[in-house]
Amino acid sequence: MPRRHIHVTGAAEAPLRAALRALRTELAIPEDFPPAVLAEAEAAAKAPRLPAHDVTDLPFFTVDPPTSTDLDQAMHLARRSDGGYRVHYAIADVAAFVTPGSALDAEAHRRVLTLYFPDGKVPLHPTVLSEGAASLLPGEPRPAVLWRIDLDADGRRVATDVRRALVRSRAKLDYAGVQRQIDTGTAEEPVALLREIGRLRETLEAERGGISLNVPEQEIVEQDHTYSLAYRAPLPADGWNAQISLLTGMAAADLMTAAGTGILRTLPTAPDGAVARLRRSAEALGVDWPHHVSYADVVRAADPANPRHAAFLQECTTLLRGAGYTVFTDGHIPSPAVHAAVADEYTHCTAPLRRLVDRYAGELCVAAVAGDEPPEWVRAALPALPDEMADGSRRANAVERESVDIVEAALLRERVGEVFDAYVIDVKEREPAVGTVHLDDPAVVARIAGGDSRLPLGEWLRVRLAEADPGTAKVLFAPA
Predict the structure, then answer these.
(1) Rounded to an integer, what distance in angstroms lies between the CA atom of residue 362 and that of residue 109?
(2) Which of 175, 308, 314, 318 is deepest in the core (most CB within 10 A)?
(3) CA–CA distance from 268 to each of 58, 204, 249, 335, 339 (Å)?
(4) 3-class secondary structure, 265
(5) DSSP per-residue letters across 236-264
(6) Is 203 helix (H, G, I), strand (E, B) or coil?
(7) How far apart are CA 269 and CA 171, in angstroms?
(8) What are the Cα distances from residue 455, in Å, to 275, 314, 427, 437, 459?
(9) DSSP 467
(10) For residue range 355-410, what is the model confidence (pLDDT) as tens digits?
(11) HSE of 196, CA atoms in CB hemisphere, 13 A
(12) Pairing of strands 474-479, 444-448
């Protein structure tokens, strides 16, 4: 998970664009696809491997940001006669287009992840597939890995099936639209059930000690011909939608562990020192965290619309460091195998258009349900996948981290010397005059240094912007 999401529209200025181009060069980001890869993608788009099972009569819908066209997931939600629920979750079937060992496959292993820059993205697959023939766009029949998960009246999983199927989405919805339909009571039942099922799953998440971080997006806001940074708090619909993906990832992990071969997304429990640091940040930001209250309960109580809580939630992502992928074969289940934030076994399997590992997890689950051995091309690729994903994740994290710094520097470069109100949210133990400050307006979390005395942790401070250079991605404040 990135520390901070950020979104930039046409408001970006020339220095920002130049700095982002330089970042692409510095990180050796692959831009254009080789001709052989594009040729294979064009051919695959015209002749995918289509499944025999047809469920195009089921009215699926997608929920994504309004401008997204690389649609990995579509769902249909329904009630069951026994008072429970049935979740149909269709995942784009990338394996219907990508032949193992092909140039297209090799390029996906080179890229590993779709990379998101503030001014655009670098896709994992050519857009003729990721935003075209393989994307679950409305009105188009598409090959999919189709999950059918039955839940009881409390939202607990009671049955799981997954197979290849031909599906067709009926509607491309966005989070704000879904939230509005549900809040006004105008949503049809398959959409309205997203809240009902999502809340049940959130309750179960809390019971098992799991936690979902509703990290706000950092956005550029245009006002009076100038630009500033602000936070956009996620909607409840964002969280309900995420619960369907989490449900599927947990079901996939169970299928793979039962079959004895798979790849899990794992996260160790955060060390005490990291939690203690987070407690200091909470105190600094005025977030109430009594000693008898768990980290998970504090996060659930945080309001992402509150700027101080938003900054706290961003700091909480530091506890997700150490996440990785663990392969197991021949029934040797790793220990520990749990993802600490999910508080259960879990895997990534719902975003194959944007993440390499998901294609392999989907294949393993389809084979497990059918009672078949995993395809040889999957087994052969498994040992290298954790390192491939780790390398890709490091590059993606560098893109996200450096992009945020560049955007902040570009938008603040004309304000060097100005004084702002800030809260000191962290102080280095060995360098007490160096730390981190959080500004409510603009929405910036940055380094502070240059003072002669210890920074007052947990207190507000007048700070002066000392440096803001998009060329070096550097923002630095000093005590005023």
Answers:
(1) 16
(2) 314
(3) 40, 21, 18, 11, 7
(4) strand
(5) HHHHHHHHHHHHHHHHHHHHHHHHT-EEE
(6) helix
(7) 40
(8) 21, 21, 7, 10, 9
(9) E
(10) 999 999 999 999 999 999 999 999 999 999 999 999 999 999 999 888 888 888 88
(11) 20
(12) parallel
Token code pair at residue 143: 């090959």
Task: Give the tens place of pLDDT for each residue, 272-308.
Answer: 788 888 888 888 788 999 988 988 889 988 988 887 7
Task: List all residues 6 or more positions away from 35 whose beta carbon is below 8 Å from its beta carbon.
Answer: none
- Taking the C-alpha atoms of residue 243 and residue 466, their distance in angstroms, rounded to an integer, is 43
Q: Identify the residue whose tokens are 């997890």.
A: 361
Q: Which two tokens stand for residue 392?
A: 């890709």
| pTM across the whole model | 0.90
Question: What are 442's two structure tokens?
Answer: 């603009």
- Asked if 309 contacts 302 with a C-beta cutoff of 8 angstroms, the reply is yes
Distance CA 168, CA 138 (A): 7
- CA–CA separation, 334 vs 327, rounded Å? 8
